[in-house]
Structure formats: structure tokens, C-alpha cells
């Protein structure tokens, strides 16, 4: 099969196995080139490990710290001649590289919201690498079936209280246009909290604690985002923002549970990057295109792998003392939110339109990063090759 990118809306419905492997290799090479991270974790559980920040965390843990990793995700293998999802190919490539390096790496594919997957994970920890000292929560899902009630909740990307109008980017047609989004209902607000809030994170830590598979002094971190004011009506002050506030409340509850044994829980607010999740949020792709232009010009741009390496190297390990903001969050978005960066982004936001999009923003870079998520546009990969889309995990 010759696999080409097929894009529908904010997602590419095909993925290239060799391209995904090359993208994973790029991140591994970056970590190795920056050196070993001293006093890093020994065994890491990443919930949401197959793409974006979760995948980069798994790579930094393994190849920067020599840690054993367990990755939990929900991806589709190749079926009926169709390519697998990018997350499936990423995870197969990661495991093969980790095993070649002599590192423990196992993956669990299934609904991370379910009790069944939690039980499978606990069994794997007990029979595998030993107790876990770091748990990363990096799930992004549009819906969640509650494991106790069986009720399914669906998240929405909407403002709260009033409608919202702003510029947005139609990535299908490369057009800057205006978007108007009606406010969410109370039911939609609550449903988004149930999907994207901290309830499932709490359930994971409760289950791991009860099963006694966390070391004393274990740390758990959930990844989040705040963003600039231009996105707040649909993000920070919208339905997602309500879910993120719930996530922060969960962090405080989990921290209170872990503190007596020397552990901790907190939120890491990361930089805006191109991910499958961020591509789905109105306004955000246009903002990211402008942000990339500004940060690349001033030499402060970071992708997922650079962010997570810096999190480990400068904030968590190597003798570093974590620094938190007034709300107890670690701020890895510090370079994005520098006043000079935000002022430059605001100035370009006012000016941008369809005609000057490529000049004013780094939309070219945005598109390149988007395609790389699915294994396309990577140097050295033969995209004309006829290949087998079926890849399986090694036993």
C-alpha cells in the first residue's frame, strides 16, 4: 500500500508507519543529544502516551532517564487494509527502540476511563517493572463513559454565558474567516467537566494507591493549558476552562492524598503546540501559527519534546527545585507568555487575513507540524514506497 495524507477537517485519517517511526526517532535523537537527566524517575506510567505531550514524556523518561515505562492509550490498529492510527504506529516504534536499548516498555491499548484498563495496568505494574514513582495524566478525548454509571458524556468546545465571535483559520481551505459560536448549555458545561476534568485522574490515583503500586514519595502530574486572552472566551473562560478548573481542584485533592507519604500532585501548564487535540479548537490554530512566527524569530520556540525535556531537566530532576505560580501550577508556558511575545502576537493577530496569512504567520510551519503528527513530510522517508500497513507490538 502507498499511503498518502488524507485530511478531513482537523484530523488526518491516514498515518504513515515509517514516517511515524522517523518522527519518534527525531525525538529520541533530541533527547540523547541533550544528555542524561540525573536523579530521574525509575518507573513511569503515562496515561495518554501515544501522541503529543504524552508521547514526548514517554520518550524523555526512557531515553533521558533510563526509566521503564508503561503507556496507556486508545488507538486503532490496521484493519481491513486501512492504516493504523498515528498513535498506534508511534507506540510500536517507541517500544521497539526502547527494547533495543534494553529498557522496559509495555503498552496497554484500551479505554483509559474504564475500570478494566485500570485493573490491567495495575496487574502489569505488579508483574513488570515494579512500583511507579511518576504518573503522568495526559488524556485528550471527546467523550467518556463513566465506569460506575455507564453514562456517556461528550465534551464541547464552546463559550459559557454568551456567544463568541473571533477570527479563526479554516485549515481545509487555508482561509482566515470569522467564527461565531453559541454558548454552551448547563448540561454541556457539566458534560465537558466529566470528560476533561479531573475525576478520572482521581480514580486512577485512588486505584493505584489502593493497589499499593506507587512508591512512597510518588509524583503525579496532569498537563494543561491556559493560553492568551484572545482564546479565553472559547478556552479559559469556556467549557474547556471549566474542565481545567475541575482538573486543578483534583490536583489539590490528590496532593493531599500523597503528601503524607512524601508525594505530590500538580498541574503543568504547557506551551501551545500543534497536536491532534489543539487542532480541533476554534481560534487556536490561527493563534499557534502566529505564535510560531514570533517565537521562531526570537529563538524561543519549543515543540513537545523540547518542553518535556526542559520540564524534567530544569524543574523536576537534576537537583532542581520545582517553582509554582500562585495557584500551585508549574508554568512551562513561561516563554510563550512573556509580555514581548504576547504583544507581538497581538499585533499580528489584528493584521492577519487570508491574503497575508503566510507572510504574517508561520502557517507553513503549522501545516508541516500537523502533517508530522501523522508521519508525513519527514525528510528521508520514501512516501512512494509500497509498504505493509500492519505493524504489531513485539511480545
Task: Give a quick rundown of the structure.
This protein has 395 residues and is of the alpha/beta class.
Keywords:
395 residues; seven-stranded parallel beta sheet; two-stranded antiparallel sheet; alpha/beta; 16% strand; single chain
Give an overview of the whole structure:
- There is one protein chain.
- The protein has 395 residues and is an alpha/beta fold.
- The chain has a single domain (7-154, 185-282, 301-334), classed as Rossmann fold (3-Layer(aba) Sandwich), CATH 3.40.50.
- 40% of the residues lie in helices and 16% in strands.
- The protein has twelve helices and 13 strands.
- It has helices at residues 17-34, 52-65, 86-100, 115-127, 186-196, 199-210, 239-258, 284-297, 304-316, 339-351, 357-360, 363-372; strands at residues 7-8, 11-12, 43-47, 68-73, 105-109, 132-137, 143-145, 152-154, 164-170, 175-181, 214-224, 264-269, 330-331.
- The strands form four sheets. A seven-stranded parallel β-sheet has the order 5-4-3-6-11-12-13, with helices on both faces. The protein has a two-stranded antiparallel sheet with strand order 1-2. A two-stranded antiparallel ribbon has the order 7-8.
- The longest helix is centred in the middle third of the chain and has 20 residues, at 239-258.
- The protein is globular.
- The two termini are 25 Å apart.
Amino acid at each position: 500500500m502507498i499511503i498518502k495524507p488524507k485530511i478531513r477537517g482537523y484530523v488526518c485519517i491516514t498515518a504513515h508507519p515509517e514516517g511515524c517511526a522517523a518522527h519518534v526517532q527525531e525525538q529520541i535523537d533530541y533527547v540523547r543529544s541533550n544528555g542524561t537527566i540525573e536523579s530521574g524517575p525509575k518507573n513511569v506510567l503515562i496515561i495518554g502516551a501515544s501522541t503529543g505531550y504524552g508521547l514526548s514524556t514517554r520518550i524523555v523518561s526512557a531515553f533521558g532517564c533510563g526509566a521503564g515505562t508503561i503507556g496507556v492509550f486508545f488507538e486503532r490498529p490496521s484493519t481491513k487494509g486501512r492504516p493504523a492510527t498515528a498513535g498506534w504506529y508511534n507506540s510500536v516504534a517507541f517500544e521497539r527502540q526502547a527494547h533495543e536499548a534494553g529498557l522496559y516498555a509495555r503498552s496497554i491499548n484500551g479505554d483509559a476511563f474504564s475500570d478494566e484498563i485500570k485493573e490491567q495496568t495495575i496487574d502489569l505494574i505488579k508483574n513488570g517493572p515494579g512500583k511507579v514513582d511518576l504518573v503522568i495524566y495526559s488524556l485528550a478525548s471527546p467523550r467518556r463513559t463513566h465506569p460506575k454509571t455507564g453514562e456517556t458524556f461528550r465534551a464541547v468546545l464552546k463559550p459559557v454565558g454568551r456567544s463568541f465571535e473571533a477570527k479563526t483559520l479554516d485549515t481545509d481551505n487555508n482561509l482566515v474567516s470569522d467564527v461565531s459560536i453559541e454558548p454552551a448549555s448547563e448540561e454541556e458545561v457539566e458534560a465537558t467537566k466529566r470528560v476533561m476534568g479531573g475525576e478520572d485522574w482521581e480514580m486512577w490515583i485512588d486505584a493505584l494507591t489502593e493497589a499499593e503500586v506507587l512508591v512512597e514519595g510518588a509524583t503525579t502530574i496532569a498537563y494543561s493549558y491556559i493560553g492568551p486572552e484572545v482564546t479565553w472566551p472559547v478556552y479559559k473562560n469556556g467549557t474547556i476552562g471549566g474542565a481545567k478548573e475541575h482538573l486543578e481542584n483534583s490536583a489539590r485533592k490528590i496532593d493531599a492524598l500523597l503528601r503524607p507519604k512524601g508525594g505530590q500532585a500538580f498541574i503543568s501548564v504547557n506551551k501551545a503546540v500543534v497536536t491532534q487535540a489543539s487542532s480541533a479548537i476554534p481560534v487556536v490554530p490561527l493563534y499557534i501559527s502566529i505564535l510560531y512566527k514570533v517565537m521562531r524569530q526570537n529563538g524561543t520556540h519549543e515543540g513537545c519534546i523540547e518542553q518535556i525535556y526542559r520540564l524534567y531537566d530544569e524543574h523536576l530532576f537534576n537537583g532542581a527545585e520545582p517553582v509554582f505560580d500562585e495557584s500551585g501550577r508549574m508554568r512551562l508556558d513561561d516563554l510563550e507568555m512573556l509580555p514581548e511575545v504576547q504583544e507581538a502576537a497581538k499585533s499580528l493577530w489584528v493584521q492577519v487575513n487570508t491574503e497575508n496569512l503566510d507572510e504574517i504567520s508561520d502557517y507553513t510551519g503549522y501545516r508541516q507540524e500537523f502533517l508530522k503528527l501523522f508521519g508525513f513530510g519527514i525528510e528521508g522517508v520514501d512516501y512512494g514506497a509500497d509498504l505493509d500497513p500492519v505493524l504489531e507490538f513485539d511480545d
